[in-house]
Amino acid sequence: MKAPALTGRFQSLDLLSVLVAVLRPDGTVQFANAALEDTVGLSRRTLEGMDFAQFFTLPSLLQNALAGSWGEDFAAVRFDGCLKRLHQESVLVHVSVVPADHPGEVLVELWPLEQQARQDREERLRDQAQAHKELIRNLAHEIKNPLGGIRGAAQLLEMELDSPEMTEYTQVIIHEADRLQSLVDRLLAPHRHPHLVGDVNIHEVCERVRSLVLVEYPQGLSIEQDYDISIPEFRGDRAQLIQAVLNVVQNAAQALVPQMAQSNARIMLRTRVARQVTLGRERYKLALELHVIDNGPGVPDAIRERIFYPLVSGRDGGSGLGLTLAQTFVQRHHGMIECDSAPGRTDFRILIPLP
């Protein structure tokens, strides 16, 4: 009955996104949390009793740190090392070794440097995107009222004009006012629609999007499916998710227009379950991972870091709102959209927590 008690004492460590190992005096693993299991690719049961130093490319780094900790030379020892992983490349980590509260135990915390940089970048992008959305929303409200006045004045002026040549000018004013009104409505769209929650099947969403895009681009484009049908339904706003995925897939299709002429434009919709995912500094055991992958030219370097900002577009005539709205709708589901792009392969990855 001792093992369950031991796990119970450490079970709160499974809630952390940081990798944690509790070591015995001989350097063997007494406990490994879920994040460490996932990173090294070995189960907790397998890790227990193993010499933890062997998981470092330079075992002496941890051995020296443990010696300093046991000898009480330092309250905490920190170093950067390289952690080995099963069937994967090693990962750079920042390591902290501190004596645990319980006598005869040492707590080893490891922060993957790449993951930490990614989390910092995600949080920075979230904050920037939120600031941009607030700015755009305020500007849209300021523009809306005078725009209606301009359109109304042009209509009244048109009624007083006898010359057809002059009414052409008022028609230009009315047409441009309508165009700007449409843009303002799109800017305000995320703030107008309530979040209607129900059961969502992500594959029904994908198939709906697939049929819509193939109607719009019937020639030269193939949209392939690679679905994990075991993914469960989850609670969400089906309409918003359809719009989010549609915007991403349409963005990919628009980038592929030149390749459609050669009939080699391809988009892949791939669903998977991701485990131990950190979103917005919160750790989730499971998350939906939807990839929209195309074989287009890639996102231009000049806008790669800003593609989710309002009014940023990589093509002539684009409004720069499609990906902004997609990110907003996904964030309403506590998720986010990431982009990894290179010539010949662009991957938009939509992550949404699962129950």
Automatic annotation (TrEMBL):
Residue span, Histidine kinase domain: 138-355
Pfam families documented for this protein: HATPase_c, HisKA
Keywords, in A-Z order: ATP-binding, Kinase, Nucleotide-binding, Phosphoprotein, Transferase, Two-component regulatory system
Taxonomic superkingdom: Bacteria
EC number, as in UniProt: 2.7.13.3
Catalytic activity: ATP + protein L-histidine = ADP + protein N-phospho-L-histidine
Top-level class of the enzyme under EC nomenclature: transferase
Protein name: histidine kinase
